[in-house]
Amino acid sequence: MLKPGGIGMATIQDVAAVARVSATTVSRYLNHRLDLPDETAGRINAAIKQLNYRPNVLAKRLSLGRSEAVGLLTPDIGNPFFAELAAAIEDEAERQGYTVFMNSTGGHHKREVALLQRLDDRHVDGLIVMTNGPDDGTLAQNINQHDAIVLIDEDVPGVTVPKVFVENRRGGYLATKCLLDAGHTRIAHIGGPENLFSAVERRDGYWDAMREAGLVADPALLRQGSYSREFGKLAMNELLAQPERPTAVFAGSDFIAVGVLQAAREAGLQLPSELSLVGFDDMMFADLLAPALTTVRQPTADLGRAGLATLLAIINKETPPAVTRLPVTLIERQSVCPPKAQ
239: part of which helix (H) or strand (E)? Predict the structure, then answer.
């Protein structure tokens, strides 16, 4: 709407004139820094509505020294896990009055490093960083040059910024113990990249459970590669080619579990009677598989919200915990049963 008697959008001075108060009063009222009598507040609200006044967001940001935006670096927005995490961050950011600028890096460190420049250019007040590949030191060096960064889901060795993870090792233990409790002893583990933080922790959890049961993990039953269906199928085919195949598999992700399931079916094996299987993540498709997948559920949305809360604490000059850990839960379905008698 045009301002009274002139052209252009209404200004805060126009609102003040119509409401018969000062521009400073309007500004402090809109920023919730001033309590006014109902009658005065009503005049300001009526003037805002009459003039269709919109605050100058850019001026507000300049006065605060903030962009009121945060950046999110994610490896693959097409992956349901990252998509759910990003959605939770966006929802919570909107509730807190922040905009989220999202970038899918494809897991390439060069793109991750380039996007860190958003902080230098003041495009965002802080960054939430997710990566899914081992670092050669380049990413860590660049992250450590900034303060307003939070790592979530995966660690980067040598980085000193606050971090939010799930209890990966505990999850690996719960998954393996589920198979042990069912009577399995020849349990394979197919995990993510060999040196990736989450993959290492989940493998350590597998070893913890095996040692607790008085068993030694057979190196021939261990495979590390990627959190993908393709790798799950490849690794399972290798395990099935051994003279003595495993009777159960702990897959380091539900995507790996889908590949394991595909390889087992193509080999003519029935699940779970001839092969028990436990995954990790509890993706939205886990209970739709046949059999429905027993898996370790990580609180994906909570991980995103905790990451944003940590970042906002930094932006507000508070001191968040160096590391935050969120619990995981074993979700038991139909993909595990006792092994067949040999």
Answer: helix 229-240
